[in-house]
Amino acid sequence: MKDFEVTPLLIRMSQGDEQAFQAVYESTRDHAYRLIHYLAPNRQDAPDIMSEVYAELFRSWRSYDPRQPFVSWFNGLIVRQVRNWKRKEWRLFRLAEKLRIGPIQTSDWREERRIQQMDERLDLLPILQTLPHKFREVIVLRYYQDCTLEEMAELLKVPLGTVKSRHHQALKHMRRLFEQLGLRKEGEGFVY
């Protein structure tokens, strides 16, 4: 991938040429896939991360400064998307940990693998959708957007104590759902 091949395509994109983005994709996909493949936490995540990279490229291509090498800018975008993907995995891990009873040994790879298997077997979206809206907001903001409790209070325009209460009640509601699904038994953590 050479900068001189992509820059004219970005100019065409700025002029409304819809085919130009497809051409940018064709010109950069091999480079992107190789970099993602080496950086991704799990190789099977590479296609999903690739989609995230191109969605972000489509959203942010206007911020590219043609005076800098496109490859450097694009590599930065890829690295950020891989990091974001890792954070998403970490959020799922934190959420699973919050739903557990008892401490977790983060150095125990078997326990981490069980949580990952739970995530693979269980799509949390249907469970989130069962929550009342005010509880769903705090779970999504906390575990999917990495907001602090204070940031949530400001964003939702409610007192910090209200955010804490909603967070606690949402986790309690989710624990009950996990018990009903047979994924958690009182005092035993997740069961697989």
TrEMBL record:
Record-linked CDD domains: Sigma70_r4
Domain RNA polymerase sigma-70 region span(s) in chain numbering: 25-91, 128-175
Pfam families documented for this protein: Sigma70_r2, Sigma70_r4
Keywords recorded for this protein, A-Z: DNA-binding, Sigma factor, Transcription, Transcription regulation
Transmembrane region(s): none
Domain of life, source organism: Bacteria
Family recorded in the similarity comment: Belongs to the sigma-70 factor family. ECF subfamily.
PANTHER family: RNA POLYMERASE ECF-TYPE SIGMA FACTO, RNA POLYMERASE SIGMA FACTOR SIGV
Protein name per Swiss-Prot or TrEMBL: Sigma-70 family RNA polymerase sigma factor
Organism of derivation: Paenibacillus aurantiacus
